[in-house]
Amino acid sequence: MAEKLKLDRREFIQKSTLGILGLLTASGVALAPHLNAQESRLRPPGAQNEKDFLSLCIKCGQCAQVCPYHSIELADIFKGHGIGTPYIDSLQRACYLCTALPCVLACPTDALSHDTEKPEDVKMGIAVFKFSNKCIGVSTEEVTREDIDRIYTHPHTNKLENEVLEKLEEYEDKQCTICADMCPYPNSILAIEMVDDNSNNGKKPKINSSCVGCGVCAELCPSAAIVIEPRLSYEDYYKKGKRNN
Fold first, then answer.
1. DSSP assignment string, the chain
2. pLDDT tens across 43-61, in order?
3. DSSP per residue over 219-242, as a string?
4. How far apart are CA 230 and CA 216, in angstroms?
5. How large is the greatest C-alpha to C-alpha distance in the chain, in angstroms?
6. Are strands 72-74 and 202-207 parallel, antiparallel or unpaired?
7. Is there a contact between 98 and 216 (Cβ–Cβ < 8 Å)?
8. Average pLDDT over residues 66-87
9. Distances 239 to 125, 142, 180, 209, 210 between C-alpha atoms, Å
10. Given this model, what pLDDT does residue 22 score?
11. Predicted pLDDT at 79
12. 126 with 230: CB under 8 angstroms?
């Protein structure tokens, strides 16, 4: 009797395991078209075109390890195709365009092209002032303590990250010009600037042709009025697309 129970238990475990594996496989097949159809993600500086990037990246994670701002994450199974590849969620922690671009230097396969040697060489995407109705600079509202505290939920474990927070502190109870002032692009006015908004006597951001899509303006915007379009250039979005800026 004991031997029969042991055999029955073994058979049950085997069938249950096969059933679970079958369900997972079926789920993966069903979800694959949806996951693969997701829009391309914001990649680290120097990323080759998406097809070449996915072919070259060996998912070693070295770019993420050396990023001093903890900007780079590695895609998991829920992020679609390219599991293990690096990407940046600009709403959580943008790329701060380190002068030496350590992520590029750390890449062993040229998935992050070593021809990208300085911030001016970066081409990640383009910033878009998408929700002007949310912008507190346009509305002339002041930056509140809550606006600044929101950024405190992002990583801040080293000197560079704490310097970002210290700079933000200076904007409390002032008109918001954070997106333009905090842009890390060298000579940042070439990438983004504040201009008069005649409708409300406030100020609004204007994206300029040197914007590289690093995402800092999107991360630090108190009202999430700015988004980043990955893999697009200024010409792609504002010229060819004939969109107003």
1. -HHHHHHHHHHHHHHHHHHHHHHHHHHHHHHHHHHHTSPPPBPPTTBPPHHHHHHH-----HHHHH-TT--EEE--GGG-SSTT-EEE-TTT------TT-HHHHH-SSSSB-TT--SGGG---EEEEE--TTT-HHHHTPBBPHHHHHHHTTS---SHHHHHHHHHHHTTBTSB--HHHHT--SSSGGGTEEEEEETTTTEEEEEE-TT-----HHHHH-TT--EEEEET--HIIIIIIS----
2. 999 999 999 999 999 999 9
3. HH-TT--EEEEET--HIIIIIIS-
4. 13
5. 88
6. unpaired
7. no
8. 89
9. 14, 33, 21, 10, 14
10. 46
11. 58
12. no
Mean pLDDT (the chain, rounded): 87
Mean pLDDT of 170-193: 97
Would you put residue 55 in left (φ > 0), alpha (ψ -120 to 50) or beta? Answer: alpha
Backbone torsions φ then ψ of 141, nearest 5 degrees: -70, 160
Instruction: Say whether pTM exceeds 0.85.
Output: no
Which 3-state string (H, E, C) describes 41-61?
Answer: CECCCCECCHHHHHHHCCCCC
Contact 111, 53 (CB under 8 A): yes
Which residues are CB-contacts of 219 (< 8 A; sequence separation ≥ 6)?
Answer: 90, 91, 92, 93, 94, 151, 154
